[in-house]
Amino acid sequence: MRRDRFLALLRPDLASMTRSWLVRLWLVLLGLSAAIPVLAATADEEPASEILRGWLQVAVMPSAIVVIVLSAATVSSESSVVADSILSKAVTRYEYILAKLASRVITVSFIYFVVTVPTAYLVARYAERDVTVTGVVLTVLSLGVILVFLTTLGITFSSFIGNTLISIALLLVLVSMQSAIFQLLGVDYLSPSNVLDDMLPALKGESQTWELLQVVLTFGLLSIVLGGAAMWVFAQKDV
Amino acid sequence: MEAGGDTVLVVETKNLTKIYAGKYIAVNALNLQVREGSIFGLVGPNAAGKTTTFKLLLGLQKPTAGQVRMFGEPMTANAAHLRERVGFLPTNPRFPKDLTPIKYLSFVGAISGLSRETTMLRLASLLRAVDLLPAASQKIEGFSTGMMTRLGIAASLINDPELLIWDEPTLGLDPAGRRQIFDLIRKLSAGRTILLSTHVLTDVERVCTDVAILNQGRLIFSGSMAEMRQSVPHHTLVLELDGDIDGLCERLAQLDDRLEYERNDNLLHITFPRGQPLAARLAPVLAALRETGVELVSINTATERMEEAFLRRVEEDSAQGLARAVSAASDEEGPLSGPAAA
Fold this sequence. Notes:
The complex is a heterodimer.
Chain A: H1 3-19, H2 21-43, H3 48-72, H4 82-87, H5 93-126, H6 133-161, H7 164-176, H8 178-184, H9 192-197, H10 199-203, H11 209-236
Chain B: E1 2-4, E2 7-20, E3 24-30, E4 33-35, E5 39-43, H1 50-57, E6 65-70, E7 73-74, H2 80-83, E8 86-89, H3 101-111, H4 116-129, H5 145-157, E9 163-167, H6 175-188, E10 193-198, H7 201-207, E11 210-215, E12 218-224, H8 225-230, E13 234-242, H9 245-255, E14 260-264, E15 267-273, H10 278-292, E16 295-301, H11 304-320, H12 323-330
Parallel strand pairs in B: 5-10, 5-11, 8-9, 9-10
Antiparallel strand pairs in B: 1-2, 2-3, 2-4, 2-6, 6-7, 11-12, 13-15, 13-16, 14-15
Helix pairs in contact in B: 3-4, 4-5, 9-10
């Protein structure tokens, strides 16, 4: 992996992410929605845990859909030009797909954390404080890692399937069935819907720290494995 | 990699085969050898396998069987160090539509490992050379086919490659543009190897030193242009005349009744069998011109010669029928030798 070629691929892709209307819309809507919990916190009517839970549950689902659309189009949207204009040049398939992964993960993480972290801080600061720092950090981190996992899953599908619409449809089906899938695997406590449902005790610090860490580590590891799978699959494909 | 003697091969394939979805054989046991410093023309009709061959050479597609070696090393999807030495022009090239030529060439320079300064210097001179300076800041989205081809040429040259692989480089260009491409190919060939594909035989005849013919994915001829021309059993000259051409034809018939010619308005196509000195056969024609007072405006070789050689090869290949299977099975190197082995 050559750093200069990787960066040469990463920079224009990050630039295209900043120009994307979908990314800009997501940032604006997420940012505007963050005003609601902050205002609720200053009204001092509900405890911080309830305010944060309510906002995170409402904010994460639409964010997941944006992430699915962004990631599922990663490879397939460029399929008509990637061979002629990029892969026929002095770059490896690994450098190309790693740059795509990095660009999307950076974009998703940046938007999510740049809105969520200040919002969580302000809510904890001004509302009736019934949350712990560890609880807030781990909860916000868990949901962020789940979004990163979704990003790498979308890119992997995009590498396998090569059709944006089919990738989006399959991802939506998977997301809707995720709790059943995790239950089948015997690890339903790791499912994103379980994380969302159990947010209240987690924010209050009443959940086991190790359980929350397991979510972070599992989805973090799965993201790395999926990223590797995407790189391997793409390297085998005809373009 | 050496094929024999001092000949260095830049590109070599061994039984290169590509079968799509287990159904369509696009490239069939191709044994190609491209000498260093040659201008190699890959000729064939549409769907002969030329573009697929180039994609296999560049590692953009994986062979179903066989090998590709470039600069002596195996080519793979991740052999970026080999593609660094290659400039590729695809047929009907497609580029990111939201970029301008300047941005796209900057990007290509960056992924080719060039410094920003070098990239900027080269892209400026290349855009001027391909006549895209007026459109340098326009989005590629609105470009014509010819403009895309010219941008593709610029992109293929930005890393100053040792090997140029150009797929149908004259596609979409007007006659002036085509002539510029041929002039460019001749200039670029100094110190470089050029591999180009075309289905226009006159293009090959104008610039190439070596030629290979593909038909239905199979190599049916590979050799020098001289060898290709030798396969045509006769010379054909085209004389452009002004004057009493009817009188000239009568005089020619008196001088040599074996002379074969065909008149097309003010053009006279004269065919001479090979094996006899052309100057000796031409002498009576020139004498007849003097006697009849017909003016010779121009004299050229006929383009049909190359087409005839091409069609003859295709017909011979088809006529072999089942014998091709025997020769393919018994001859590990493939049915015909390349220029290096010759």
